[in-house]
Amino acid sequence: MHVRRLDPILVDRIAAGEVVERPAAAVKELVENAVDAGAGSIEIAVEAGGRRLIRIVDDGRGMTPEDLELAVERHATSKLPDGDLFSINTLGFRGEALPSIGAVARLSIVTRTAEAETGSAIVVEAGVKGPVRPAPAPKGTRVEVTDLFSATPARLKFLKSDRSEAQAVAEIVKRLAIAHPTIRFTLSGEHITAFTYPPEEPGEHGFLRRLSRVLGAEFHENAMSIGVEREGVRLTGFASLPTYHRGTGTAVHFVVNGRPVRDKLLLGAVRGAYADVMASDRHPVLAVMIDLDPRAVDVNVHPAKTEVRFRDPAFVRGFVVGALKEAITRYAFRASSTGGTRTLESLRPQGAMPLRPAYPHRTHAIRPTSAFANWQAPLDGSERSYASGLAERQGNLSDLAAPSADSRANLQEAQSETDEAPLGAARAQLHGTYIVAQTQDGIVIVDQHAAHERLVYERLKRERAASGIGRQLLLIPEVVELDPLDADRVLAEASALESLGLVVEPFGHGALLVREVPSALAGGRIKALVQDVADALAEWGQGASNPLEERLDAVLSRMSCHGSIRAGRRMRPEEMNALLREMEATPLSGQCNHGRPTYVELKLTDIERLFGRR
What separation in angstroms does the CA of 144 have from each of 47, 185, 207? Predict the structure, then answer.
């Protein structure tokens, strides 16, 4: 078969397969054109998920008739004035979007510049370009794409449902709205909850307001401010507290030089920054802008321009990790506001209750709807009885009759000293697990095991960074039997573990001899400690590419659990207050090593609402 040159229209359709993968991709390209045109307001409408109609209306600069005729030609663009591909300052620059869309759909453009008395219009249908005609139009550009992929029916088979495609369009618009908070964005159409994001003022406060509109009102209360600049790279934005997270990474937003991207390097940096304070299956909520010299980043590595390549990827990753870790350390004493909200919701009765209930004379029993549902009032004045489910535990009720510890009213001096502290003064211990403290304007409930686990972990890290973790020699070395593969993993890292205070030796097939343990973990269960270390090594893998410090921190995180105050241990008032004060002085104490909150705070006003006092 002879080599031949492809038909130009066929070339456009092949190119469209790379640029216009689905309706959301077409919306992205057209909205980016509107942003580059200096639009202050952009309206997007879709029908049938964008397959039947995509309409983009902006109030940007518009185009002259001559520019409009060239705009639908292949590789014609106004965004590379000097032809320098190494210094790109716009979102769209390839000159492929409009001709690619016109090759697989019916494309109609109406546009007018501020200086022109009348507008211009052009239609491109299935790759065939019509003439430019005069048309009435306001300043700006109106683009309509109808019957997308009508010229390539095979592509339609790969589209998802109209609802799924519409949701993909909404996600694209939200990402662009985050990247450009000073522009008004409006989205409407079928299968979409219409929204409008009004323009915000430039700067940090305007950006946070836009994020609160896009990511949810709760984000405002749980956001950490980030603002760092080094070696010509500036990183600004907001990231969520470690205890405020999502089940997927869809709420992680990066904007590089005004371009929203989903880059593996940056996503890995987020994972590394939060590894110490968040469970591996959870993801933070953040929106961060990275501004740097356009020559230091290549945005031309993907047809859809969703990925970038940095000239110095190691520096950028380290810079992002460092900035996020600094913010986490600065803010991490705080726990997310959603913890208190969830606690209040769990305390509310299941049925609707009036704020100020009346108590009319009644001759019948009322079904209890609260946590006291199993309690039955005595009918004959005798001793109260308990319904099924609680009767079995009657013998233990005396243990719950009084709190484990109580700061009595006559201890006014101690109370005045600690009530003003952020975590207040310990008042009781419930079920041997939770510390209840009183603050100046509410109460705090602390999970004693989770809190102490974080404190032990931070202590071990400080010791390792200073002069090495203190070790305690076991009077009688303990033999620990493991799976042979786990034992081999531990022995292979024996030198690294020794720097962490754990000294082990081989002791036959699948067995280890433990001679020393970290002083902070003395008295713990050694077998469980060694097994957790083996699990941590298996999780990270031998010779893993992660930095050594991250791997050692992962091991320390597992180890610290065995030196923590266990749930069920009764504590004296002075012990509980000492734990609260140490939490206040320890970075990252707002969450345990696994990302769970160590405490929740309830404001007095919220508690009063529960009882109809407000």
Answer: 11, 17, 30
Q: What is the CATH number of domain 8-196?
A: 3.30.565.10
- How far is Cα 487 from Cα 516, in angstroms, rounded to an integer? 17
Phi-psi domain of 279 (left: phi exceeds 0; alpha: psi -120 through 50; beta: other): beta
By the 8 A CB rule, do 90 and 79 touch? yes
Angstrom distance (rounded) from CA 575 to CA 446: 13
Cα 178 to Cα 43: distance, rounded to the nearest angstrom: 15
Tokens of 335: 């726990």
H or E stretch including 232?
Answer: none
What letter does residue 245 receive in the DSSP assignment?
A: E
Read off the pLDDT of residues 334-360 as tens digits, 9 standing for 90 and up.
666 665 666 666 666 555 444 444 333
Helices 448-466 and 548-560 sit at what angle, rounded to 10 degrees?
Answer: 140
Domain ranges of the chain: 8-196, 200-332, 336-347+404-614
Q: Are 185 and 32 in contact (CB under 8 A)?
A: no
pLDDT tens per residue, range 444-453:
999 998 888 8
Residues 6+ apart with CB under 8 A from 609: none
Provide the b/e sequence for 320-353 (b: ≥16 CB within 10 Å).
Answer: bbebbbebbeebbbbbbbbbbeeebeeeeeeeee
Question: Quick count: other Cβ atoms within 10 Å of Cβ 582?
Answer: 16
Sequence-ordered strand ranges (E) for 334-423 = 375-376, 385-386
- Mean pLDDT confidence for 167-186: 96
CA pair distance 447, 442, nearest whole angstrom:
17
3-state class of 3 per DSSP? coil
User: What φ, ψ does residue 571 adopt, rounded to 5°?
Assistant: -125, 145
Of 64, 23, 27, which is closest to residue 42 (Cα–Cα)? 27
* Contact (CB, 8 A) for 386 and 374: yes
At 46-94, the pLDDT tens digits run 999 999 999 999 999 999 999 999 888 877 777 665 655 666 777 766 5
Q: What fold, for 336-347+404-614?
A: Ribosomal Protein S8; Chain: A, domain 1 (3.30.1370)
Please identify which residue in the block is written with the tokens 């879709």.
46
Half-sphere exposure of 274 (CA within 13 A, CB side): 28
Residue pair 394/388 in contact (Cβ under 8 Å)? The answer is no
b/e map 396-431, b = 16+ CB within 10 Å: eeeeeeeebbebeeeeeebbeebeebebbbbbbbee
How far apart, in whole angstroms, are the C-alpha atoms of residue 393 and residue 370? 19
Any idea what DSSP says for residue 6? P
What is the rounded distance in angstroms from the CA atom of residue 203 to the CA atom of residue 19? 33
Stated pTM of the model: 0.73
DSSP string, 486-542: HHHHHHHTHHHHHHTT-EEEE-STTEEEEEEEEGGGTTS-HHHHHHHHHHHHHHH-T
Please give the class, per CATH, of domain 200-332. Answer: alpha beta
Residue 122 has pLDDT above 90, yes or no: yes
